[in-house]
Amino acid sequence: MQQQYTNLKEHYKFTQEDIDILKQLKPHMEEIVEDFIDGFYDYIWGFGTTASFLKNKKIIAYHREKIKEWFINLFCGTYDMTYFMYLYKIGEVHVKIGLPTHYVNSAFTYVRIFILKNIQNSSYSQETITKSIMAIEKIIDMNLDVLTSSYREEELSKFLSMSKFEKTILSGLKRFTSYINLLLAGALALVAFFAIGLFCYDIYLLFFTDIGIEKGILTVLGSLLVLWAAIELIHEEVKHLQGKGFAIGAFIMLAMAALIRKVLIYSLSSEKGEDLLVIGIVIVCLAIAYWLIKIKKSSELVD
Ligand code: HEM
How do residues 23-52 score in pLDDT, each as one tens digit? Predict the structure, then answer.
């Protein structure tokens, strides 16, 4: 652990000069800490979900004090094992409460901008300002590195706590699903190819048979709809292969497109009344399922 933190300072080229500069800035930072904390809270409250983590006045008051302490400590001048262990512990607390690392990263943007703005508006010489900016950037980046390392280690420890057998099964399953996904992508490309065939066939029916202009145009429109949905599905599958979620919504959309095509065709026939009713009900059910999936997705994005 000791070695890890020595390396950290080396990797960020954090020098004694940086340490001295940060130490010199401490009195100035103590003067502006109240402005800092007010702005910090305005900023994180803007996330919209902050209240679900900082649940009551007592926790907020505690967190405010801890953040102020952390802020002043950025300029403490002693960046030893104890300092980095303290940062690591903060990260662990955030992991424990299930705070997404995204919020911490974003809060750091506020911290960075607040400090840099204050330094640039100060009466220090241009040389001191330049050196201060470099030292501040380094200490902030090192803080973010350690704070988020708890998140990475949480992931890693989940993996390390598995038995050899479990790890083999997990890796095997991952490889298997990636092959299946490739197969699925290929099958979808084939579907799109057939959809193009269907579109061409419908064009043929429109111009070279006695299908009638009205039915012909509706049929062409329907096959275009299916083609569009198939392309959307391929697009979603590509996103899935790139590591994003499973696109059940796109499958539902394809099913709706296929059924709407049938409705367009049947709507011209007086004998298909019952079929039309059943298809209509199925389309409404699919639309409701699609809507529910969209709602769930957007609420996950907000979280
Ligand atoms: C620059 C970013 C942040 C820093 C430096 C920071 C710092 C801290 C510190 C020092 C603690 C106390 C750890 C301890 O008890 O030992 C803490 C706890 C906590 N933080 Fe943060 N925090 C940050 C961002 C956030 C954000 C964005 C949220 C919420 C949206 C948050 C929510 C919490 C909560 C809920 C606790 C636990 C409070 C308790 O003990 O009940 N933190 N944080």
Answer: 999 999 999 999 999 999 999 999 988 888
Q: Whose CA is nearest to atom 13 of ligand 1?
A: 90
What SS3 class is residue 113? helix
Task: Summarize pLDDT for 223-244 with one digit per residue, the tens.
Answer: 888 888 888 888 877 877 776 6
Dihedral (C-alpha) 227, 229, 232, 238: value to the nearest 10 degrees?
-80
Sequence-ordered list of residues with C-beta below 8 angstroms from that of 290, at least 6 positions apart, any chain? 249, 252, 253, 256
SS3 245: coil
d(CA 145, CA 12) in angstroms, rounded, equals 10
> Which domains does the chain carry?
2-160 (1.10.490.10), 164-302 (no CATH)
Helices and strands: H and E segment counts in the chain: 11, 0
110 in ligand 1 pocket by Cβ < 6 Å? no
Say how far residue 115 (Cα) sits from the centre of its chain.
27
Cα 7 to Cα 272: distance, rounded to the nearest angstrom: 75
Helix (H, G, I), strand (E, B) or coil at 100: coil
133 CA from centroid of ligand 1 (Å): 25
